[in-house]
Structure formats: structure tokens, C-alpha cells
Amino acid sequence: MPAAAPNPWVKRSNSSIHGGGLFAKCDIPKDTRIIEYVGHRLTKAQSRKRSDELIAKAERTGGGAVYIFELNKRHDIDGFVTWNPARLINHSCDPNCEPSVIRGHVWICALRNIPKGEELSYNYGYDVEHWQEHLCRCGSSKCVGHIVARDQWRKLKTRKNRIS
User: Fold this and answer.
1) Mean pLDDT, consecutive 10-residue segments, the chain of 164 residues?
2) Angle 59-71-113 (CA atoms, 0-180°, nearest 5)?
3) What residues contact residue 91 under an 8 Å CB cut-off, 6+ apart?
């Protein structure tokens, strides 16, 4: 795949959240489609197999794990490719972006006005089932300590209280 054209909205830089990240190159207005999340289109069966392989590799190496986005009921996008700079966007419990599937494409869109220099982030939306495997390092004052979808924070709190 050829290198992507330069994106007018983002630049890559070091992140305090996790290694590298994407940052606003200029002020980004609310609701802007900032960057498309691209990669290999997979069937659900291929996606499950790829996820298992990537998780096993991450456990061995300590690297990032899964970069797979649900596209629709039949297909996912595996964004673990060098030509997908959107894979560098980190999780936050208080994100400034959200992914949106628009006409068969996954776009990262601004939830609010994002000032130049701010790191882009979205909530990865992981299920609470495996919460202990996904520690969060977002640093937000709203951080719940684990990468879990916001609609499952109450369940997370209940599970954490059972352990305490």
C-alpha cells in the first residue's frame, strides 16, 4: 500500500499516555472528520483469528495488542499496518474524539473543538469482561483506571469493589 498523503489535521509525536500519539497540527473544529482509520478488511472469522494472534504476540513482547475496528456485522478493519497513522491515537477516559462508521469507512471525528498541539484520543470501548487486562494510563482526572467503554463504568466499579 502506498504511503498516505499528509494529513492537514494531525502530526505524530511522543505521547505521555503511551509511546507515540497523534496531535492536532492546527485548531480542529468540533465534528471534523480528522482521519480515516484504514487497514486490511477482514471477515469476522479472520478478525477473531488475527486478534488472538496479536494478543499472544503482545503478551510475549509487551507491545500494543489489537488494532481491529468493527466495520459492520460481517467485516472488521485491521489497522495494524504502517500506512495507518490513526492506529497511533491513544485511549482516554475523557476523549476529544470518537470513531464513527460512515458509508463503510471508519473515521475519527472531533467531539469538541481541539486546540493546536493537543493529543487526539478516543475511548477504545473495551468490554468490561476483560477489564483487568487493560490498565489505563490516560492521566485524565476522569480516568477509571482501566480501558473500558463508558457505558460499562458502573459494572467496572462493581467488579473492582468486589475485589477490594
Assistant:
1) 76 91 98 97 93 78 75 93 94 97 96 98 90 89 94 91 81
2) 90
3) 17, 121, 122, 123, 124, 136, 138, 147
